[in-house]
Design goal:
FAD/NAD(P)-binding domain, Enolase-like, domain 1, ten-stranded mixed β-sheet, five-stranded parallel β-sheet
């Protein structure tokens, strides 16, 4: 009998197993993986948040030795323009020219990787095994044994039954446990796409930055889009995504469509001049979904078994690692007799579902903003309604384009790796319409906490679940710590934006060497709190206002100019 049994040895399963054995080494953990590693897998473009998880898992050095390209950001051809624009993780996309392997510090803590999943996944699984997880590859689960909502064991090929106290479904889209427990899923009908891809050797990179740095390419075709992701010094993943309905109407074979798209895009065609295809052409359905339940009496869904968001935002592995990490923390807490087990599990479900739904909503906005996919604008009012807001289609469209969320924990005024400022800048770049800020348009801000109740928010750190004070109204929670705690403290005494900003500056100077950056973070939270109704914003013509706007050419999102950063 195992203490924890994990179905699936990909990044979700190996993250759960690796963290359980790091912080709770005496726990017996079994990982069942139906395939034999290494094996190829899509989802190769990471966001910086993932690197924090890799550092906690203590696999950073192995990832560096694998020579994965350093992801500085992405270059897009999208929206109401055919021009290229860059989304950079570091100012101006300029990476210090430092030797590799490098340490998880400085700029490298702000960037990400573009990974060959055959190598990446094997590194993670090997780490889990080296920590003491029992890993069984080439082992398929054929039946989930249950008693009501409790799982009693799993049957594998050959008839063996394995029992455990806790079960984790990390089996990806297959959702072995999810299906076995007959969990229904929500499938947004407007994000039902198909994906075709292959791997190429010796492509040129669109841009070379520092030692091994580059950007992925996301290129709209009008009827679909191409990803171009260097995943090793010599290997590149190139894929095509298009709506399933449009694919059926075209009546062409997948590989024919794929080759036509690559050959018809001048930027991609130029990068393929010296390349050779590996002829591993693969197709899949690529439908966004969220499971309607993410936990039960003694089980959890993590990673893509719990939900999947359209890959245009490269959120897949961020959502995967974050859910797996938190499930591991919760299992450890439950095993130690945590005093709020039901609330803790419900918190996991609420937060992870919110992350996935927000990426789905942002993807819906993204495709609408492209102006070339199915028009979703009228549908956005329903999206807002699902989030508890009453907005018409124009208001809802603006809400989606400017964030539509407050926080993902206490450090970021955003969710799933995207903050309010980034979303506003992206929407302004795509739509060519000026993004508006309530903190710049209004000058009086009053707390509106009526109807809220005190509850608990949970933070996961150093192997422990930490309780934080929080208020909740409906589905929205607001942790009363960090920037939010400071804002509420200030707003309880002051309502004028000029004075609010002055006090934020004074607070930031007490603990930060970069108070301007901290004030910007706090204003992101202020903006998000307005959107969710925690703060009422208005204009007093007798009071001074504060200029605050999204720049057209910020150091993080700007017109593409590869020549400035070393285009080969």
């Amino acid at each position: 009998m195992a203490k924890t049994l994990i179905i699936g040895g990909g990044p979700a399963g190996s993250t759960v197993g690796g963290l359980l054995k790091k912080y709770h080494p005496e726990m017996d953990v079994v990982i069942l993986e139906r395939e034999v590693f290494p094996r190829d897998h899509v989802g190769e473009s990471l966001l910086p948040k993932v690197c924090q998880y890799l550092d906690e898992l203590e696999v950073w050095d192995e990832m560096e030795r694998a020579e994965f390209p350093i992801k500085i950001g992405a270059t897009y051809r999208w929206g109401k323009t055919d021009d290229l624009w860059d989304f950079n993780f570091i100012p101006d996309g300029k990476l210090d020219d430092e030797p590799r392997p490098g340490k998880f510090a400085g700029q490298r803590a702000q960037t990400a990787f573009q990974v060959d999943r055959a190598v990446y996944d094997e590194i993670l699984l090997n780490k889990a095994e080296s920590r003491g997880c029992e890993v069984r590859q080439n082992t398929r689960v054929v039946k989930i044994l249950k008693d009501g909502d409790k799982i009693t064991g799993v049957e594998i090929d050959g008839g063996e039954v394995i029992t455990a106290d806790y079960f984790v479904d990390a089996s990806g889209h297959t959702g072995v446990l999810r299906r076995g427990m007959e969990i229904e899923c929500d499938y947004p009908k407007d994000l039902q796409n198909v994906a075709f891809w292959d791997y190429w050797q010796d492509t040129d990179w669109a841009v070379n930055i520092g030692q091994g740095g580059t950007r992925v390419q996301v290129l709209s075709q009008g009827w679909g889009w191409i990803w171009f992701i260097p995943i090793s010094p010599t290997r590149t993943s190139i894929g095509l995504i298009l709506p399933a309905d449009h694919y059926k109407k075209l009546g062409k074979k997948p590989e024919e469509l794929y080759r036509e798209a690559l050959d018809g895009d001048p930027r991609v065609k130029d990068l393929l001049q010296n390349a050779t295809c590996e002829e591993k052409f693969t197709t899949t359905t690529d439908w966004s979904f969220v499971a309607k339940r993410l936990y039960g009496e003694n089980w959890f869904l993590v990673g893509e078994a719990a939900g999947f968001a359209d890959p245009v935002l490269a959120a897949g592995l961020t959502l995967t690692h974050s859910s797996a990490r938190e499930a591991a923390y919760i299992i450890m807490a439950l095993d130690k007799g945590f005093d709020e087990p039901d609330a803790l599990k419900k918190h996991y479900e609420d937060v992870q579902a919110a992350r996935t739904y927000q990426h789905i909503r942002f993807a819906q906005f993204w495709y609408t903003a492209n102006g070339l996919f199915t028009d979703l604008k009228d549908y956005t009012s329903k999206i807002a309604d699902d989030a508890g807001l009453e907005l018409d289609s124009d208001q809802a469209f603006q809400w989606l384009g400017t964030g539509g969320f407050v926080n993902d924990g206490v450090e970021l005024a955003g969710i799933g790796g995207y903050n309010v400022s980034a979303v506003k800048t992206i929407s302004q770049t795509m739509l060519k319409d000026k993004a508006t800020w309530s903190v710049g348009k209004c000058n009086v801000f009053e707390l509106a906490l009526e109807g809220s109740d005190f509850t608990t928010y949970y933070r996961f750190e150093n192997g422990e679940v930490v309780k934080l004070p929080c208020i909740q109204r409906g589905e929205h929670k607001l942790p009363l710590v960090g920037a939010v705690g400071i804002l509420i403290e200030i707003l309880d005494q002051e309502t004028h934006i000029v004075e609010i900003r002055r006090q934020l500056w004074d607070k930031a100077c007490e603990f930060s060497d970069d108070p301007g950056k901290q004030v910007s973070f706090a204003l992101d939270f202020l903006e998000g709190m307005i959107h969710e109704g925690w703060i009422k914003a208005s204009i007093n013509p007798e009071l001074e206002s504060m200029d605050y706007e999204t720049l057209n050419n910020s150091p993080y999102i700007r017109a593409n100019n590869d020549e400035e950063v070393g285009h080969d």
